[in-house]
Design a protein that fits this description.
This protein is an alpha/beta fold. 48% of the residues lie in helices and 19% in strands.
């Protein structure tokens, strides 16, 4: 990210608590760095289904970035729990579009690995914006 992109992204993610579920250690660290640089507080990276499910109990989550596959497990139970708690999420994956999780969650944004940092930050900012607008409209 260029300095002006970081400043702009920082204003958009400042104060957000973003859950990162990613089983690849280095990709997880990269996501933490990108989101932290943009002003978010990162919960994770969670590398296993069990730790990810435990992290969904954090009532202060603003959004989540989920890898579709965690080793042999699918992230679907995590997505389901986040949806139950009205926490917006996106999939960040290298999996093909034919993965069954896509069929289960057809309206969820998918970013294909590797994505540019600005694209990741923009996608999270858009989720937060939509969630804020939905809350405003219902309240």
């Amino acid at each position: 990210m260029r300095p002006n992109e970081i400043a702009s992204a920082s204003a958009r993610l400042n104060g957000a608590r973003v859950l990162v579920v990613e089983d690849d250690f280095f990709i997880g660290l990269e996501l933490v760095a990108i989101l932290s640089d943009a002003g978010a507080t990162v919960v994770g990276p969670q590398q296993t289904l069990q730790s990810a499910l435990a992290a969904t109990g954090d009532e202060t989550l603003s959004a989540a970035i989920l890898d579709i596959r965690l080793g042999r497990d699918t992230v679907e139970p995590v997505a389901r729990r986040l949806a139950e708690h009205d926490v917006p999420f996106l999939f960040y994956t290298g999996q093909s579009a034919s993965d069954p999780v896509h069929a289960t969650w057809p309206d969820i944004k998918i970013l294909i690995k590797p994505a540019l940092p600005a694209s990741l930050v923009a996608a999270v900012a858009e989720m937060l914006k939509r969630e804020a607008e939905a809350l405003k409209a219902s309240g």
